[in-house]
Amino acid sequence: MPLEFGKYVKTVLERAVDEAQEAGAATVEAEHVLLAIAAEPDSTVRALLESAGLDHEKIQDALDEEFERSLSAAGISVENSELPPPRRSAKRPSRMGASVKLILERGVVEAESKRNLQPAHLLLGVLQLNVGTVPRALAMAGVDLDDFKARVHRSLTDETERR
């Protein structure tokens, strides 16, 4: 049985803080939430991610590629750069960025009622970001975002009808 939505969100956000700390980030952002979702054992969300060819490692690779391309667009080559690699921060991030707030708002809005909230609503909130690191990284990974969103919507509808 899937976790209650509130507990699921709390667990994902705690893991997202760990992901941000591991990356040396001062703020928890959408990419950390997506990585945290991919690390969670919820079978429905995991199956949805796998249907798009995604897991934690592939998401991290796509985020790394997006970072390198963004730097390249600014005229910075990672290979020739003297930028140090990201280091785990000694301090845990204590702030949620604007993208995390959008994820939560958009995921909850998609539910017909609060009692219908499911873990996949959080994933849908991530997928509804139109700009930023995550949509660019997913596009670079070859994910058809419109198709993926439609599959998540269908999954949520099917789950609601089973209840």
From TrEMBL:
<dbReference type="Pfam" id="PF02861">
    <property type="entry name" value="Clp_N"/>
</dbReference>
<dbReference type="InterPro" id="IPR004176">
    <property type="entry name" value="Clp_R_N"/>
</dbReference>
<keyword id="KW-0677">Repeat</keyword>
<dbReference type="InterPro" id="IPR036628">
    <property type="entry name" value="Clp_N_dom_sf"/>
</dbReference>
<feature type="domain" description="Clp R">
    <location>
        <begin position="1"/>
        <end position="70"/>
    </location>
</feature>
<protein>
    <recommendedName>
        <fullName>Clp R domain-containing protein</fullName>
    </recommendedName>
</protein>
